[in-house]
Structures are given as C-alpha cells and as structure tokens.
Amino acid sequence: MQNMETRYTHSPLDIRHYSTEELRREFLVEKVFVPGEISLTYTHNDRMIFGGVTPTEEPLEIKLSSELGVDYFLERRELGVINIGGPGFIEIDGEKEPMKKQDGYYIGKETKHVVFSSEDIANPAKFYISSVPAHKKYPNVKISIDQVKPMETGEGVTLNERKIYQYIHPNVCESCQLQMGYTILEPGSAWNTMPCHTHERRMEAYVYFDYATPDTRVFHMMGKPDETKHLVVDEGQAVISPSWSIHSGIGTSNYSFIWAMCGENITYTDMDMVPMDELK
C-alpha cells in the first residue's frame, strides 16, 4: 500500500495566529513508518517528497508517475535513502544489495526501479527516503555510516554534544541539490542546534527517532527568530522546516534525527546564525 499527502507552503505571517492543532496539521507528519506501507509527504517547499518505506511480507516499490507528470518516479528526480530499522535489502534496476541499520544510498535520476524489502518481518527495515527534482544524472552510491567521518561538535556543558554524519554531501558523493545526513546526540545532551540558525536559501525536513526512553519527546523549534513556536514530536515523526524558519530543537533526553535539505546550493555551512539576544 502507498499513500502520499500534499502539504502546501506558508508565509511567516500565515502561522502568526495558528493554534497548536493548526501548526501540527501543517508542519508535523505523525505517521512515517507504517508496517507494510509506503507513507510519503509531498511538500511544496522546494518540491521535496519524504517519508517512510516499511516492507514486511512483500517488497515495496515507490510508484509515482501521473502525480508528478512523468513516466516513472525518478525520471526527473534524485533520491536519498537511510535505513533506521532492521536489516533489509534495496534493489536498484535489478541489482540487489543488503542494507543494515544506518546504511544509506544516493540514487540518481533516470533510475527506473527501486524496490525495498526486509530480511525479517518481525524486525522490519525502516527506510527513510527523501527525493527532490534533479537536472542531471549522478552515479548511484551506497553509503555506510562506517565510511563517514563525523563532524563532532557541541559541548556537554551546553547540552549539545553530537556527531553529524553527512551522507549525501559533496565530501561523499555528487548530487544535484539534495543533502542528507544523520545526527546522533550524546547521552546527557539534548539541543541539536543552539544557538540556532536560518538558511533562507534551503528548506529542510527532519525525522526524529532512537529516543533514549519511551517517554522522551523532542520540542522542535520553528518560526521567525523573533516569533518562535514549537512542535512536540514523538519518536518516528517528521517535521517540515521552511527556509524562513529557525532550525533547532531540544529533547527531554538524547535522540537521533535525519535531516534532508534542498534549495539554492549544496554548501552545508551556508547558515545565518541567530544571536541569542534576538530570539523571542
């Protein structure tokens, strides 16, 4: 089974008077990994499609054509994949490869078939995917977390000690505009970014997972720096972060998340830092 929900874009003025329910309806995706299903969200923010593929008894293949005005899903798109569940497999145009937890893949445009499956239906793979428009075909590349040298940043004293693994990034593989990575917070840390930042030139989407305890929650911060708002995010839920919004969050314990970005450039450090005295 496959389903895709469409979310539209918003001005910062649109959300000024949103209730909690309205804010969650527009920016939070509550169901990403549904056993036996493909659950996607198509955001009009830079035309990104993201979501979860959770195969159980049968392999799953994303099939989007008429929705995108093309003959097949990746005719004019590129795709990033990271498995955050049990061991599984990915078959790309007939070539099948194993995908353990934390394995990723960059798949270039014009790839016709991408099929996902699990090794054990009792412990299914959870493939998080992100796809954006592409103008050129780049080579498909499998990416293991063991091959990525993490950026170690933050400090325990400021509760933001973390490792950032850049999967789809110019240091690892070529892409048109997609960037994708995996951030792991150390025990005792809770902030994923503070001081926070914006990047008007790129939107972002996040999925939060690997919570330290069942009662862990992440408070995802968003909005303009002088009009901040927040979403309370349960494990396995995702958030759309527009380019004009701050990018930050804090958990009640440590956690991990996958970030995916697209927009005007692929320079990871292209951020506009927000001074603490400007936050409101």
Highest CATH level, the class: Mainly Beta
Please work out how many helical segments DSSP would assign.
1
Determine Rg (CA atoms, Å). 18 Å
* Beta-strand percentage range: 35-45%
How many discrete structural domains?
Answer: 1
Give the overall average pLDDT: 94
How many extended strands? 23
What does this structure look like?
The protein has 280 residues and is mainly β. It has a single domain (2-273), classed as Jelly Rolls. 3% of the residues lie in helices and 43% in strands. The protein has one helix and 23 strands. It has one helix at 20-27; strands at residues 2-7, 28-29, 37-43, 48-54, 60-61, 77-83, 88-92, 95-99, 103-107, 114-118, 127-133, 141-144, 151-153, 162-168, 179-185, 197-198, 202-209, 218-224, 227-233, 238-241, 248-251, 256-263, 272-273. A seven-stranded mixed beta sheet has the order 1-3-4-11-6-9-12, with no helix packed on it. A hairpin with a 4-residue loop joins strand 3 (37-43) and strand 4 (48-54). It starts with a strand and ends in a 7-residue tail after the last strand.
